[in-house]
Each structure stands twice: as C-alpha cells, then as structure tokens.
Amino acid sequence: MAVTVSIPTILRTHTGGEKQVQARGATLAEVIDNLEANHGGLKARLVKEGTLHRFVNVYVNDEDVRFAGGLDAAIADGDNVTILPAVAGG
Amino acid sequence: MIPGRSHGLGTVCPARKIVIVLRIREDLVDAMVAHARRDHPDEACGILAGPEGSGEPQRVIPMLNAARSPTYYEFDSTEWNAVYREMTAKDEEPVVIYHSHTATEPYPSRTDIARAQEYAQFLAPPHYVLIGTRDPERHELRSYRILDGEVTEEPVDVVPT
C-alpha cells in the first residue's frame, strides 16, 4: 500500500525539506516504520512506548486515527496521512 | 482607543537578535474579542492565518473548543485537519494562535507553556495571543512568544482599519 504523508514544517528536517513523502504499509504502525527506515528520527516524534504521543494528531484522509484504531488503523492504497500537533492549553 | 491595546517599539531578544512585536489589524482584534465574549465563560480559541514565513496575520479562523471548558481549550481535531489543509493549499500558516482566559489574568498557564513546547516540535512557533474576559466591560489582550519553555511578552501594535 503506497500512501502520501504530509510532513509538518519542523519535521521536514527529517525529509530533506520535502512537504510530502511516500510510504508503504497496511497499518499506520507499518507506515511509520517505513517512514523511519527512509527518514530516520520521525518515529520518535510520533510514537512513545508503543502508542501515539498524546499531543500528536495523525489523520488518515479526513479521520483522526484515535477514532480508527490508532497505530492499528488500516491503510489503503492512495490514502493521505497527515501529521499535526494537537492544539490545546488552559 | 481600544481597551487592552498596548504600544511600543518592540523589544530585542538578545539570544536571537530578532525584534519581537505583533502587528495586527484592528478588525482582527475586534473579531477575536467578539469570539471570546461570545463563548464566555468557556474559553474561546482560534487562529490568525497569514502567508507562510511573513509573520503577518491576515484572516481570523475561529475554532471550536472541543473541551467546552472555562479552564481548558483544545482544537476540535477534525476541524483542525480541514483548516490546516485549506491553509496549506493557500501557502498560509498559523501566525497567531489565540485563546481566552475567562476568570484569570491573560498570562500563559503552565499547560499553555507545555503544549506550546510540543507544538513547536511540529510547526513554526506562532504568536500566542491571550484575551482576558473576566471584566465584562473591558477586555485585556496580550501577546507572547513561548520558546523552549520561556515566555516573553511582546508589544501589540494595532493597525487601524
């Protein structure tokens, strides 16, 4: 499954400045492992102790993966994956 | 005269050698304040978007506070994705992220500082505008940079429209 991953500005240091990169995988966890293999350093920004960081939002197309199985979310060919910080405060 | 408006020529942050000041159109200020008043006593939150790298806020995007709380705010994650995509398509970024404090002074809370540090690992650090609505007659408006856990207040230069 080939997907397009949109990379937020600061993380582009890991992708040679590319805004979007291609990755492969049948689940989000596999896509992130594939990203890490080609763009070292990305995984640690997204995953901690086997789950997504609390304040990172990852979307598959329009859906926040928190509501679609998290790292186990299924990925289909041609999907768009977007990474954003959660925006919150008190 | 706008209540809460402050004047100044900007201060120089010695470590970074950049002049920090937020220049912002009066109609954008009015829109943020109106949003904060509308959602009071819950916190209101939103974005001022502008061209990437320009530092110039051009349009206001009021966001839903998914927490619907008087002490906490969180962008609705689905709305945030749609708004971010629209901004990216226009080569825009969040120049300002604003929210209101409805019962306390408009100074970043410990939670605000912690979340700002996480945000800065993903997107360029914005100006953080806080709007205080504890006084029903007179709002307070302040702007801050939050870098490496350090809060620096900056002058707000309101440009009449």
Automatic annotation (TrEMBL), chain A:
<dbReference type="InterPro" id="IPR010038">
    <property type="entry name" value="MoaD_arc-typ"/>
</dbReference>
<dbReference type="InterPro" id="IPR012675">
    <property type="entry name" value="Beta-grasp_dom_sf"/>
</dbReference>
<dbReference type="InterPro" id="IPR052045">
    <property type="entry name" value="Sulfur_Carrier/Prot_Modifier"/>
</dbReference>
<dbReference type="Pfam" id="PF02597">
    <property type="entry name" value="ThiS"/>
</dbReference>
<dbReference type="InterPro" id="IPR016155">
    <property type="entry name" value="Mopterin_synth/thiamin_S_b"/>
</dbReference>
<protein>
    <submittedName>
        <fullName>Molybdopterin synthase sulfur carrier subunit</fullName>
    </submittedName>
</protein>
<dbReference type="InterPro" id="IPR003749">
    <property type="entry name" value="ThiS/MoaD-like"/>
</dbReference>
